[in-house]
Design brief:
binds zinc ion, 6-stranded parallel beta sheet, alpha/beta, 9 helices
């Protein structure tokens, strides 16, 4: 695969008439995010990081590095419990605890805007309890299973299309390697790499709490 030597100049603004995709990274924050964010910045690109509340702990610097780059942080529950097993306060806490810990870790009181349910598992109770829009994906790289950067890259390039939401996991170094390889290729192919919120706005989708996207 040919990777361009020089980063193409990309406008900061999003052109809704041109193709765009959202890379999403689940289960962090992770030290791998430094490299992913650096590569995104190099290409004036952005992604969304769906973090676990329990992993935010002493990773304030990673949280702020992500946010300072213009990337988005979303919630992915406190501890990756399948939400369909929960109800009442236990369910509510999986949404609010990650929101609160990200807010306090961030320098500017950042409020997460979207949420990805662990395993993509939802039911009517979960939807009803969610204070956030629920973000799924259309490209599941299965990177956690293959742990193979080339397979992840090939899977994305074979399936990517305008509007794709791509699921990857930044906690694995192979997935980080795949992202580093993919970012220039996707930009070269003409895709704008945008956050989930930017994608929805550009596609004129008004997200609502408890609704799947
Ligand atoms: Zn996950």
């Amino acid at each position: 695969i040919q990777v361009p030597i020089e980063a193409p100049i990309v406008k900061n603004e999003i052109d809704p008439s041109k193709p765009m995709i959202a890379l999403t990274f689940d289960d962090g924050p992770s030290k791998n995010d430094y490299e992913i964010v650096a590569k995104l910045k190099e290409y004036n690109a952005r992604a969304t990081f769906y973090v676990l509340g329990k992993n935010v702990g002493n990773k304030e610097d990673i949280i702020n590095t992500i946010l300072d780059s213009g990337c988005e942080i979303g919630g992915h529950s406190w501890d990756h419990t399948s939400l369909v097993k929960l109800s009442g306060n236990a369910l509510t806490n999986q949404f609010t605890s990650v929101r609160d810990v990200v807010k306090s870790a961030s320098n500017n009181g950042y409020e997460i805007k979207t949420f990805r349910p662990p395993y993509g598992a939802v039911n009517e109770v979960v939807k009803g309890a969610s204070p956030f829009p629920l973000i799924m994906w259309d490209i599941d790289t299965l990177d956690w299973k293959t742990r193979n950067a080339k397979k992840t890259v090939d899977h994305v390039l074979k399936n990517v299309k305008d509007g794709s939401i791509i699921l990857m996991h930044d906690i694995h170094s192979e997935s980080k390697d795949a992202a580093i390889e993919l970012i220039p290729i996707l930009v070269e192919k003409g895709y704008q790499l945008v956050t989930i919120s930017e994608l929805m706005e550009a596609k004129n989708i008004q997200m609502q709490n408890g609704v799947l996207y």
